[in-house]
Amino acid sequence: MKDRLTPLTIPSRKGRLAIVTGASSGIGKATARALGLAGADVVLAVRDVAKGQAVAEELRAEHPEGTHTVAELDTSDLSSVAAFADGFANRRVDILVLNAGINGTKGRQQSVDGHELIMATNYFGHFALTARLLESLRRASRARVVTLGSLVAKRGRLQPANLDLQRRWSSGRAYANSKLAMVMFARELQRHSTAGDWGLNAHAAQPGWAQTGLFPPGIISFLGRATRLMQSASDGAQPVVFCAASRQAAAGGYYGPIGPFGTAGPVGRTPLPRPATKPDKLRALWDATEELVGVRFELPEPPSDAD
Fold first, then answer.
1. What are phi and psi of 17, to 5 degrees?
2. Which of left, alpha, beta for 202 (phi over 0: left; psi -120 to 50: alpha)?
């Protein structure tokens, strides 16, 4: 599918380190390309390293201003998340794009840590990764953290005591819940950053209906040609790139296509799912997630009286 949108104009990201999870295809690959062309040194954090290397070689051939390197990361595996984060313990991370995800599974499956697989891949791993990279993000000047939402996030029905959907599981429900959780995570991360003076800007983005592996080819062809409600992966990545690099992206904002039904079109503000506007629900999700993944965001120590 051809790109229809005019490429975004973003400031140079030269010298900035960007991590993009799930960067071997779709929205992640398009985001990695755009950030590299803008000068960023991009880490493709992928589960399949061989596939990631092939993508990195392809992107390098486009003569970007920045670089593209590959590191192994399986967001469904908390030990993989910890190992990946350890590799950045003494480095500065300027941009963190939390894109990796799966759309569905045949039957309820569990991760190696015993969590529902869709939620583990799309949300729990990203929550843990951000917590483990907190100090690296705080070393940057206004680091950006971008979570990937979805149009279906508004269908999510999160219950803190049932995040793993041990009751009433369905593939669609698990996916919608994971995407709602990602939008709510960005909102609560921004609140924590502001309250704790962490210096982070958190954003959420939804790509509309984009040409990725989440849609069957027949659906892509029909929606793209007959209705123009489907867009290319590069066009779908524009809200993500906007959040990661544009000076116009407001901290805590939720961005996506502003065309018909929010499925395609240029970038703009997109309506928040109702739970993402409720401070009590945001706090409840955050607290429950910390307990489930066993990783906490450590608030900076308050200054002593002697200071």
1. -100, 125
2. beta
Task: Return the pLDDT at 214.
Answer: 54
- Decide: 178 and 118 in contact? Cβ < 8 Å: yes
- Closest to 92 measured CA to CA, from 37, 135, 46: 135
Contact 194, 200 (CB under 8 A): no
Contacting residues for 1 by C-beta, under 8 A, at least 6 apart: 211, 220, 224, 230, 231, 232
Among all residues, which ones are annotated catalytic?
175
Residue 61: exposure state from Cβ atoms within 10 A (0-12, 13-18, ≥19): exposed
What is the pLDDT, as a whole number, of residue 213? 59
State the burial class of residue 267 (Cβ atoms within 10 Å of its Cβ: 0-12, 13-18, 19+).
buried
- According to the model, what pLDDT value does residue 220 have? 45
Burial of 217 (0-12, 13-18, 19+ CB in 10 A): exposed
- Residue ranges in the chain whose pLDDT is less than 70: 213-227, 299-307
pTM of the model: 0.93
Report the alpha-carbon distance of residue 237 to residue 116 in Å, rounded: 27
First and final C-alpha spacing in the chain = 59
